[in-house]
Amino acid sequence: MKQLSVNNLLGIEDLSLEDIELIFSFADSFSEVLKRPIKKVPTLRDITVANLFFEPSTRTRISFEIAEKRLSADVLNFSASTSSLTKGESLIDTAKNILSMKVDMLVLRHPFPGAAKFLSRHVSSVIINAGDGSHEHPTQALLDAYSIKKKFGTVKGLNVLIIGDIKHSRVAISNIICLKKLGANVKVCGPSTLIPKFLSEMGVEVSYNLNESLKWCDVANILRIQFERQNINFFPSNREYSMQFGINFDNIKNIGKNLVFMHPGPINRGVEVTSDIIDSDNSIVLDQVENGVSVRMAILYLLASKIKS
Amino acid sequence: MLEQRKEILNSKHLNLTIRRLSSQVIENHVSEIDKSVIIGLQPRGTALSEMIHRNIERETKKEMKIGYLDTTFFRDDFRRRKDVLIPNETKINFSLEGLNVILVDDVLFTGRSVRSALDALVSFGRPNSVELLVLIDRRFSREIPIEPTYVGKSIDVIDDERVLVKLDDKKKCVILLNKNS
């Protein structure tokens, strides 16, 4: 019998290797549940979860909502644009008001780095970080690593390349931390203006040569350019970025091995990757989405188990 | 600390009991073995379910479906334990719609595991009927009104005692352990 070492999921940084393996083992069980004719279990029937999304989201919000519903939790969806935030209400006041209606868990997406940690200091409910600015996106990293594990049987010793806008990507940061904890070799590749300087301290190799990096890797995780977090131009044009760092069939035809392609979405087809790559048999983009539900069910289940009845 | 108190069934008796249980299932299901299925409850009912299943197939010379069911996510003690229970594998690769299910577990105690199993079963379709086969029935310990259809041996045991069923190849037996020893 085991238990997670944390009471909230604020970032991958807080998780031990044992925590990650525990989440993966429960994700395996929930993957089986999701293949049953009736894909619902009654476990969280006395738990209420509020999804607080202060930023737009398609996959993450729907994935959390379906995971919560498959576990029989009561679900509240909160969208910043239609709330009293527009009248000037603060994050803490919003959360406290929602929690006073007997909500047990908060799933928070917020544009400010550290928002989930900040809120965890002011409220007593369980908090799951669904992305805080350019800081962390722990559930995405867990589902990415879980998808790699399902594809290869292990993450340890694999060469994983992360390509694109590393500077503004919470997915990249969380992926790097998670993959390193699981024993993968991680390299990043992108324009020098979009690679933060602190990466070498994280034990990550940096490359500016896409074709050489592709030859090195087993898995290529392709990220989109986060234009919404950029207030200056980090490269001259989309076309130039695509020519230098976009992945197309020409990049891989002479590599001599089958690479696995991943993308956390949303995909800008024709910019960071072409359709012939991302729709190919080597792409596990839709497996990532499917696995996301099992992984989020595992996280919700394990954190809810710590709320005493 | 658990210590053996006494042997309830020795290897010879255990084999005879399992053969008798298999024969009783055949007696009730012989006309429609193809519509009957053995479901072993994880974790401790699976070994017994495999033995019963093997006996039935050997005796009737017909194939019979078998599956394993884990009930962790259907239990009623979630958030009431210090640690989370680690689920075991559920392996039911067919629909239970219209089938006659024989649930198999080693020991029937409070009845709560069987209640959760009855809830979990319907995730795989609506069975025509559900029967319960247990090797050991701890009488007078029920917390939920559930009774077995097939019983290997009924015993009277106080709460501080634990029944251990050993079905591995080295030594097959059922023993009673005293928790306070």
Describe this structure in words.
- The complex is a heterodimer of chains A (309) and B (181).
- Helix content of chain A is 37%, strand content 15%.
- Chain A folds into 2 domains: 12-137 and 289-304, Aspartate/ornithine carbamoyltransferase (Rossmann fold); 138-288, Aspartate/ornithine carbamoyltransferase (Rossmann fold), CATH 3.40.50.1370.
- Chain A has 11 helices and 9 strands.
- In chain A, helix 5 packs across helix 11.
- Chain A is globular, with a radius of gyration of 19 Å.
- Chain A has a 5-stranded parallel β-sheet with strand order 7-6-5-8-9, with helices on both faces.
- In chain A, strand 1 (48-53), helix 2 (59-70) and strand 2 (74-79) form a beta-alpha-beta unit.
- By secondary structure, chain A is α/β, with parallel strands linked by helices.
- Chain B is α/β, with parallel strands linked by helices and 181 residues long.
- Chain B is built from 3 helices and 8 strands.
- In chain B, helix 3 links the parallel strand 4 and strand 5.
- The interface between A and B is medium-sized, with 24 and 22 residues.
Task: Return the string of H and E elements of chain A.
Answer: HEHEHEHEHEHEEHEHHEHH
Catalogue the unreliable spans of chain A.
none
The structural class of chain B is: alpha/beta
Largest sheet, strands/sense/barrel of chain A: 5 strands, parallel
What is the third-level CATH name, the topology of chain B? Rossmann fold
In angstroms, what is the radius of gyration of chain A?
19 Å
Q: Any idea what the shape of chain B is?
A: globular
Globally, the shape of chain A reads: globular
Helix content of chain B: 10-25%
Mean pLDDT of chain B: 93
Strand content of chain B: 25-35%
Mean pLDDT of chain A: 92
Task: Tell me how many strands of chain A there are.
Answer: 9
Whole-number count of domains of chain A:
2
Spatial ordering of strands, largest sheet of chain B: 3-2-4-5-6
Helices of chain A, by number, come to 11
Hey, which two chains have the biggest interface? A-B, 24 and 22 residues
CATH fold call of the largest domain in chain A: Rossmann fold
- Level-1 CATH class name of the largest domain in chain A: Alpha Beta
